[in-house]
Amino acid sequence: MATVAGEKATAQHDIVIIGAGxxxxxxxxxxxxxxxxxxxxxxxxxxGGTCVxxxxxxxxxxxxxxxxYVEAKxxxxxxxxxxxxVRADLAAMQARRAKVVKQxxxxxxxxxxxxxxxxxxGTGRLSGDxxxxxxxxxxGETELVAEHVVLATGSxxxxxxxxxxxxxxxxxxxEALEFGxxxxxxxVIGAGYIGLExxxxxxxxxxxxxxxxxxxxxxxxxxxxxxREALRVFKQQGLRFExxxxxxxxxxxxxxxxxxxxxxxxxREPIEAEKxxxxxxxxxxxxxxxxxxxxxxLDERGRVAVDEHFRTNVPGVYAIGDLIKGPMLAHKAEEDGxxxxxxxxxxxxxxxxxxxxxxxxxxxxIATVGLTEEQLQNGGVAYRKGTFPFSANGRARALGHTxxxxxxxxxxxxxxxLGVHIIGPRAGDLIAEAVAAMAFGASSEDIARTIHAHPxxxxxxxxxxxxxDGRAIHI
Length: 475
Description:
Elements lengths: L7 E11 L3 H12 L4 E5 L6 H6 L1 H20 L14 H25 L3 E4 L1 E6 L2 E5 L5 E11 L3 E3 L12 E2 L1 H4 L8 E5 L3 H12 L3 E6 L10 H13 L3 E4 L3 E7 L6 E6 L5 E3 L1 E4 L3 E3 L6 H4 L22 E3 L10 H15 L13 E3 L4 E6 L2 H6 L4 E7 L4 H6 L5 E7 L5 E8 L2 H13 L4 H6 L9 H10 L7
Parallel strand pairs: 1-2, 1-6, 2-3, 6-17, 8-15, 9-10, 9-15, 10-11
Antiparallel strand pairs: 4-5, 5-6, 7-16, 12-13, 13-14, 18-19, 19-22, 20-21, 21-22
């Protein structure tokens, strides 16, 4: 790996990728494996993008630490493990979070070296026909020329009208991962994956968390039956919810440690909080890429418009990941990157966009793939449904984690699996079986006839598949 700096330089590569997040660095590795001379441009010192540095990885580290704290405080006694004087050491948790992040960013850097991928430190922008200008922190510029330029800059947090983020009292997910003290009260605006995960972290550690959601439900886009069960569980855990809540604005008053926020809600009493987390979604990170100057077209939602081969309207320029249509998820971006590199190498490669799983790493976890029951109903698709609770599973009982269920939706005529939705222990791992089955066009009968080891949580998936035909065994 080489880092290029200096006042003026020029270099040429087969492929230049702007952005070293999951989409960019995975694309770079696959491109190098296929024999391309690949370079990546990244402005952050650490590689890995939002997911590795300030998103997926650090949030999961804190989720795990906070869960272990709650488990030690409330649940281990049931297992005959008596722990007295349990307390949370937030500084140690944050130090572990930082360590986990560094291990992952170091891992990405190792992959760059291993695969002989050139790294350019600085901000990249399109500057001409198949050309990229990299501006380093010292102001020096490097001109890169490549046959293929790939845009992989990911996404940034979306704002909310009337709410000004100051990074201290009113924060985004980035700052909410780095609190040096547990806030006494936290208002989370947005009941999606990010808001519920971070809300869970701070609720476990002692904050009074109130979640505000504009819709009349949590987890927009997820199967409603599963979302309703999740809401019930989260309320049991102490989180408060105000649904159908339209936030009119947030004001901050006071000085120093006495600063507080007042969240105004249309038609309701305002809420006072020590911290406010704005988690209303993300938008493509297109600023400063030179798209307008080069004439790269955007769609009606501000995403980079591409065809089925990730090509923009400008020859030689491609886009992947959060910049283009589809769910803003790291694993989707990775698949985009792999498919693009293989297509550039002349191989047949594609992404199953209907089979991108989604996971909320709360407790219990929530995972989904395929169509929801509401989508099937609205589309007039005849279907059969099978559900099975974790409370009837031997492994779940042994673990002491019996909340939730697996839900399988299958075509009423062909029995082909159309959607799988899980709330329960290790749902994020269990959903992989469903994705694999659906990728090969499996029926619920196929899953039901597949031998699952006993005792495992995966047996709940098998039983849900049996339940589609009304023949679950253990209930």
